[in-house]
Structure formats: structure tokens, C-alpha cells
Specification:
CATH superfamily: RelE-like
Number of domains: 1
CATH class: Alpha Beta
Structural class: alpha+beta
CATH architecture: 2-Layer Sandwich
Order of helices and strands: EHHEEEEH
Number of strands: 5
Strand content: 25-35%
Radius of gyration: 13 Å
Strand order of the largest sheet: 1-5-4-3-2
CATH topology: YaeB-like fold
Largest sheet: 5 strands, mixed
Number of helices: 3
């Protein structure tokens, strides 16, 4: 089963900002980042329960999938037949602060 994917506005902003930062740092890397995120999102959409729970929530557990080749994670929730992408964060960002 492939779950329906919804990307929250904040997650979309995370992706765009990180892509721009990588592209400014070294041309071409931003595009590779975007492609790596797209592959991670596809994996999450196809098999969302293969990734660990990052933290439990009242409404649904928040899971974390690694973006290959980059120090970023995709944080998401699964409800019924839908995967909601909540954030795409650098591994050194403060996730407890993000939760609040």
C-alpha cells in the first residue's frame, strides 16, 4: 500500500531553505539534496512503519527517516492512509525545541 503524502508548509520551507543553503555553499549540491529528500519522502510514503518512532504524541507517533548522504531527517506522522511530513531537519537541530 502506498500512503497518501501531505507535506506541511513548514516542512516545505525546511526543504527549500536547506536546498538554497547547500546550493550557495557549493553549486550542484542543493539539487542533490533535493533529490535525496525526494527519495526519502518516497520511501516514507511506501513503507512508513519501517522507521523508528522519534517521540510519542497524543494524536499519533512522530517517526524519523534519515535523508541518505545528508545529515537531515524527515519527521512525519502516519494516520489511516495518510503520511504527513512535519519537518525536514538537520540532525544537529534541537528536536525537543521543535516539538513544542
Amino acid at each position: 500500500m502506498i500512503y497518501r503524502r501531505v507535506i506541511a508548509a513548514d516542512a516545505q520551507t525546511d526543504i527549500v531553505e536547506a536546498q538554497q543553503w547547500y546550493e550557495e555553499s557549493q553549486p550542484g549540491v542543493g539539487e542533490r539534496f533535493r533529490e535525496a529528500v525526494a527519495r526519502a519522502l518516497q520511501r516514507v510514503q511506501e513503507r512508513p512503519f519501517m522507521y523508528p518512532v522519534d517521540f510519542a504524541s497524543d494524536s499519533a507517533d512522530v517517526r524519523r527517516a534519515r535523508v541518505k548522504r545528508f545529515p537531515h531527517y524527515v519527521l512525519y506522522r502516519v494516520r489511516d492512509d495518510e503520511v504527513t511530513i512535519l519537518a525536514v531537519l538537520h540532525g544537529h537541530q534541537d528536536r525537543p525545541q521543535w516539538r513544542s
